[in-house]
């Protein structure tokens, strides 16, 4: 381990494109040849990579299998029969085609929710950064408290409150809490202060533009990369959120995929075939998203670097 | 009030409208979905539903003072749940952060081949929903389904992932899901360390290991602390993973295994809303205390 | 003004009351197999009421929470399935409405006393018993014959038979029992004459550590310690493999369980035999499952809902509709004959094993005074956790019951119930 950490810096890299790649590394190191150090370093990272990958590989191969094949044979090899098509068809046919509905709901919650959350956060973060107003830092402190409260500690009180008003078990009961993201405000404020020069706003104001218009024409445009990061964080956050819909919803038609899979998982003892559907459903939920996110990855790093978890 | 009624000039009026329009929607929703429910929960926690006699007539609402709190603080289930979550955090947080720092330093060094590839690879689990991750691991922990168990037992290790080893199994699911994100987070911080600082240290004769720990690491310490803070808050919320592992039918996880599960069970199995609210308030308080401790620690370090 | 209100009222009464050509649609939530078929048959045979069926997760698997939530959210379905143990909780939390106004009393004579006692709480009747689950012993008749064994009639014989099976075939057991099946152990205690809950003196008495319960748990602790039965999740992978390969020869079961067997091990059709549960002294059976139909508070069509519930619980058509997919036993004794005929005709898996007669005899021997506590969702969850934690250890079940009793009493007192032990 010690040798591994002796590194040569390739220099500060600015863009999300990252390093210019690996270079000869051994020049400054003593003792061992550079390729040995490299191999050791790379294998350590590769072990982590393998650990990351294996469960996903298992999932992908499992999609090709019938129920008995899941329980027998090599987990890290596909089924010779390659039952992907039947499995996916059965998945979408099960329980009167509920899975498609769940997928659609999840997409609405995640895409719509993340979009609204981003707009609200960016506007609020910008306002916190660019306007002086009374009690500003106190209000901001309250938002930070919101960041630090575990989300789940809010969900049950929220349910209790909404059920008193008979608002639970509606799409809104899930959607509205999802679009409020204090952490997004925190990121947006940091991003705004780093990226938008005050002079630019002054110029717009001198031109006579109203504040809201200035925000949309100048602020939002400059904050776009930060907004994308907030969107992605919130999107994954919503996609991941299991507790809120679990608490709020009882109507099967409003369920998210996660909730649906959980319901099936609790019914495995009545119908063992759900195991197969859960595996296939997990893959159908996850794999397209993974493929979609690989090209988007640089936004993460860009946003995190700028937005200042500093 | 007087200052507001006096005619403000156009700029201040515009500015006030700007604040209202830009901050207003978030502020209102934040109030409705965070502040009001929390206050409502605090309110609920001072009441309780009391049955009388056999109870066929239903419960009556009575003011309870601090009864619910004293009940929670003497409730073996709640205390055990808090203990479990703390133990879980005590294993999970350092393990995750140390692994993430090591991998980030490795990736930041010029020594690793295929860095972009590994970045992408390690990041993947972040996008896998927690429930799906739990399900995949549940199957990888289930005898009969799991190639891992077969593999281990051919090596002569009989591991009971869902029995005695369940705490480790939960930590593993969480580490798997969070590692890549934290690696990228810290890596991004490392990238921002100016090369000149590193070079200066090198000219002063510092070894590379020394540079890693004394030059690079202090620069990313704030990032590491933020990551730690969020991981601690996250570990207090433990719910999905134990809920899934519980469904294996043969696991030691009870239905009130974590405070969060207790809150859920109280609300939805026992219909004891007041106790559920109390437990939620206590979870928030616990998070507050831990956050406070971490930020205090961070500020002390920063002052040095 | 007054006249206007009056005529509006009249009009609305007219709509609700006569409704000759008005079709009322009601919703029914259940997870019991055969429900969909029953609903379809009801809809075919009724014009003015149509039922929409919604499959919900099993009660303890989330179905009950869903019902509570729906009632709170003001979206109550019209009819729900509630299992016997949960009826008291539904009543104490005001989730279901009393049926006294709907002439439920006139059904009383059709039902056995124990079942009626489970739905008549305090001064009202809150649910209509639909199916019941007298415990019986299912055994592999073919393997028994091969080994020259007779099905046991007493628990002493059960033990001896188990030892014989072990001696003949070391990898085989007489029976598999669920490792955390709280309802199963409750049923076994019920059979032995225990009474875990009792409200007959005007307050709750909780006693899961009486002589009968202790005798039952000691018996099973010993049988388990001697490895004479398997204790593990039933219908899980290993249990199914054991069934398929003749390594597990029996189950303490109830009629509905044949449905599970036919789904999980269809190849064993015709190999099962059914007898009365082995006895302690004198014939008795516990009840192990079964369900009732109840009307949630706030449901908008109680009249129609009650008509549906009554039809499901008392009409031979309902039994006929469910028979091909469900082997659950109706509670109304007027339905026994048609159940026997329909089940034998529609379900090849149970043909020739004499299940209906055995179950019928068992149902008549269920002790009538058993009651359930006011929070059995929590109660079963806790008992399952306690059993999982200590079953298989020395005195495991006994200690689980002791801890459960204590925790239950504490919990109920905390909620204000008047509990004495």
UniProtKB/TrEMBL annotation, chain A:
Homology family: Belongs to the binding-protein-dependent transport system permease family.
Keywords: Cell membrane, Membrane, Transmembrane, Transmembrane helix, Transport
InterPro entries: MetI-like, MetI-like_sf
Entry keyword Ion transport: no
Domain ABC transmembrane type-1: 103-295
Composition-biased stretches (Basic and acidic residues): 1-11
Chain intervals for the UniProt region annotation (Disordered): 1-29
Pfam family for this entry, one: BPD_transp_1
Highest taxon listed in the record's lineage: Bacteria
Membrane topology: Multi-pass membrane protein
Cell location: Cell membrane
Protein name from the UniProt record: Carbohydrate ABC transporter permease
Annotated TM spans: 40-61, 107-128, 140-160, 172-191, 222-242, 274-294
PROSITE patterns in UniProt: ABC_TM1
Organism (species): Streptomyces chisholmiae
Automatic annotation (TrEMBL), chain B:
Subcellular location: Cell membrane
Taxonomic source organism: Streptomyces chisholmiae
Residues annotated as domain ABC transmembrane type-1: 82-294
Origin superkingdom: Bacteria
Keywords assigned: Cell membrane, Membrane, Transmembrane, Transmembrane helix, Transport
SUPFAM superfamilies (alphabetical): MetI-like
Record-annotated membrane-spanning stretches: 20-47, 85-107, 119-141, 161-188, 220-239, 273-294
Family per record: Belongs to the binding-protein-dependent transport system permease family.
PROSITE patterns assigned to the protein according to its UniProt record, in alphabetical order: ABC_TM1
Name this polypeptide is given: Sugar ABC transporter permease
Topology with respect to the bilayer: Multi-pass membrane protein
InterPro entries in the cross-refs: ABC_transporter_permease, MetI-like, MetI-like_sf
UniProtKB/TrEMBL annotation, chain C:
Source taxon at top rank: Bacteria
Lipoprotein among keywords: yes
Stored SUPFAM superfamilies: Periplasmic binding protein-like II
This protein's UniProt keywords: Cell membrane, Lipoprotein, Membrane, Palmitate, Signal
TM regions (residue ranges): none
UniProt entry tagged with the keyword Phosphoprotein: no
Cited InterPro entries: Bact_solute-bd_prot1 (IPR050490), SBP (IPR006059)
Pfam families: SBP_bac_1
Identification of the protein by name: Extracellular solute-binding protein
The species this protein was found in: Streptomyces chisholmiae
Lineage: Bacteria, Bacillati, Actinomycetota, Actinomycetes, Kitasatosporales
